[in-house]
Amino acid sequence: MIGNLRAAAGGLTVVSVVSDHGFLEVDKEVHLLTAFRQRGLLDADAAGHVKSWQATAWFTGATAAIRINPQAPSGTKERVGGLLEELVKDANSGLARVLSGDEVKRLGAARKRRFWLS
């Protein structure tokens, strides 16, 4: 394909292949939403479609932003925070760090998220 592009462009054109995404080897899968389901923070039907949620994760690359449902019961943020801290302490969880909402705001990212994971 690249050879065809170079041939079509002629000898005076430079063809560069670039990417806006870096790639690293994946050696650990993180099943964060499974942990949320096990703690009753997320409910799904047999097909995996979400029926209700108190907290969820929005994944991007090797990070995730945690969102607390505005209609969630009082104390949900603390429950989620406790779960995340447990997971970070577990060397097999795949989570390295939890940033609090205040830390996320200070860094200027995803202002409405309560936690950010890496």
Provide a descriptive summary of the structure in words:
With 118 residues, the chain is an alpha+beta fold. The protein has one domain (24-117). The chain is 31% helix and 21% strand. The chain is built from four helices and six strands; from the N terminus they run ααββββαβαβ. The protein has helices spanning 2-9, 32-38, 76-89, 101-107; strands spanning 42-44, 50-53, 55-60, 63-68, 98-100, 115-117. The longest helix is centred in the last third of the chain and has 14 residues, at 76-89. The radius of gyration is 20 Å and the shape is elongated. The model has no long low-confidence stretch (mean pLDDT 82).
Quick summary of this structure?
The chain has one domain. Helix content is 31%, strand content 21%. The chain has helices at residues 2-9, 32-38, 76-89, 101-107, and strands at 42-44, 50-53, 55-60, 63-68, 98-100, 115-117.
Q: Which value, in Å, is the CA radius of gyration?
A: 20 Å
SS elements, strand count: 6
Determine the fraction of residues in helical runs and give it as a percent range.
Answer: 25-40%
The run of helices and strands is: HHEEEEHEHE
Defining traits:
118 residues, alpha+beta, 4-stranded antiparallel beta sheet
Mind sketching the topology for me?
Blueprint: H1 2-9, H2 32-38, E1 42-44, E2 50-53, E3 55-60, E4 63-68, H3 76-89, E5 98-100, H4 101-107, E6 115-117
Antiparallel strand pairs: 1-2, 3-4, 4-6, 5-6
